[in-house]
Write a structure and sequence with these properties.
By secondary structure, the protein is an alpha/beta fold. It has helices at residues 2-13, 45-58, 84-96, 108-130, 148-161, 206-221, 225-233, 244-252, 308-319, 351-369, 378-381, 389-395, 424-441; strands at 35-39, 64-66, 79-82, 101-105, 166-173, 179-185, 194-198, 235-239, 324-332, 336-338, 374-376, 402-407.
Length: 444
Amino acid sequence: MKKEANTFVAWTLGLALSVHTVVSERYKADYRGYRLIHTEALERDDQVIAVKRILQNYETARQVFLMNDVQIAIGTDVWLLVSPSAYETVRLGFGSRHIVFHVVDDDVQRTMVENAQLNADAIRTHNNRNGGRWNSVSTNDHTAYLPYDEQMNWMLNKAASAGNVATAFPVGTSYEGRSIYAVAINDNNLGLPAIWIHGNANPRDWLTSATALYIVDQILNGNSTDAVYLRANFRWFITPNLNPDGYEYTWNFDRIWTKTLSLGANQSGCAVPGVYAVGNFDANFGGAGCSANPCADTYCGAGAFSELETQAVRNFMASLTGTLALFVSLDSFGQQWLVPYGCYLTKPNDYDEMRRVAAAAADAVRQTNGRVFAVGTPVDLTGASTGASFDWGKLRERFSYAYSIRTRPATPGEGGFDLPPDQIIPSGRELLAGIASACRELLL
């Protein structure tokens, strides 16, 4: 594990090659001098057009990235990651439209290096204390992010140590041949309602899989009132990391990668091939929030479920015996407990009931760590987004309760998807409390 952690730090500290290359060549992205900027709320149509045009001209070249999940419109404030070569164009263009913005981080690479070093330090401290082992069921103290193999080795051993209470098994295989593992808890008790949780559909959202592993640990071995309640009353199916290929790519080559690693027939020469798995589900597929440009970070594929990773979720749900009480997608970031729909302007007939449960969950989160999670549909909070798993769960599978939980923090300015590892346990605690509160409120 030390070697893998040091490899990651060496990447972030070392000189990297240009990002303008196809993923199959495995070049390392370098974001030195990229600035994180934050606009004040856009006030006019020409300002909206100017921001959209900047993104249209520079995003696929990986010179400007939209960093907050919003529909760009009047009243929206926008977070952008801007390369050194594009910054002057952005500054002048925004200035000509009187778009006020602030530079929040003048070197995002430096910040990623700092967080990588913190993670390497946490791993080193852990290894010194535990003989260099993460795989043992007793030694994952959730103080560091782990590569995929380490995550799954720990989970497999954790399940094996639980006797007949838990099993770990593959729900599918990724494009590059990695097993996509889930852990089942209480699966033999078909009388219990089932709950599904997955994380890391977007590979850069490291906090989501780390939080999911914390939740697994607590459900199996926690002594808190919430942990005991969850262990006793539900069947659990938890896939901490739905996109292992992309996740490994964020460790070794590009920390802000958003897609799978599949290579579509229409993606030859793309700097960013693959598919944005977050939007690859059958829920008004290909609409708002997804790009039709195969080289874009948010390209959602040639069709719904084009990806082996999203097929794994669909196929498992088709095979599930018993009642699924709750479907949860862990996403990052925004501090939001999202209720369907994001893919339509209308709301489900039972929206008020789903929102009631989500509001109780958000209140439990607030009482745990003081974090305020907004509750509502994506349309209400950030803007329409299509192809999301929780919308698919509600629309196609007719799960009574389906949510996307966007983890801490609230904004890119607070760290966005690249949080230091000391945020894992607080995130785990607050979401365990939120999920336990939601489970107590379910009308089953």
